[in-house]
Every structure is written in C-alpha cells, then in structure tokens.
Amino acid sequence: MDSYYVRFVENDEPHFLESCSLCRKTLSLNSDIFMYRGDMAFCSQECRQEQIESDEKKAKRWRKASSSSKSKNSVAGKSVRSETLVVS
C-alpha cells in the first residue's frame, strides 16, 4: 500500500500518522486516528489508553526515585548539604 504521507528524503523513518505508535498497525485515511501528546497516533482507544497508562507508571517511578534520592540528603526533615567548598 502506498503511503498517503510524504516521507522525509534524508530520513527514511515513516511519518507518525502511518502506523499506530503502540502496535504498529497501519493507519488508513478512512479510519479514526486517536492522538496523544500531539505527535503519537494510535489505531484505537485501547492502544492509546495503554500508552497513557504506561507513561503514568514511568512518571510515577521517576517521581518515586527522585523523592527517595532527595530523602537521602536530609536528616530529621532538614536538608543536609553534601557539596564540598574549596576556598583559596
């Protein structure tokens, strides 16, 4: 099937509207396309929702890891500086 979208000459990656960002199913002009974050196209609400849930889990893990590293630098709720200052 020929692409309905123009490909970049220098970069042979498919256009983001050619296939589902999750399952890679080919998207056609005669079907609904479900968008997420502006540049991610999906073939169905289910694929879109699965990506949203995956992104939320990643963000939650990142926040948890970020907060645990902050807590390592605190004692009794107070921040502790761990940098070294050299004065000459």
From TrEMBL:
It comes from the Eukaryota. Residues 55-88 are annotated as: Disordered. A zinc finger (FLZ-type) spans 15-59. Residues 15-59 form the FLZ-type domain. Signal peptide: none annotated. PROSITE patterns: ZF_FLZ (PS51795). InterPro entries: FLZ1/2/3, Zf-FLZ_dom. Pfam families: zf-FLZ. Keywords: Metal-binding, Zinc, Zinc-finger. Residues 65-79 have a biased composition (Low complexity). Belongs to the FLZ family. This is FLZ-type domain-containing protein. It comes from Brassica cretica. The lineage of its organism: Eukaryota, Viridiplantae, Streptophyta, Embryophyta, Tracheophyta.
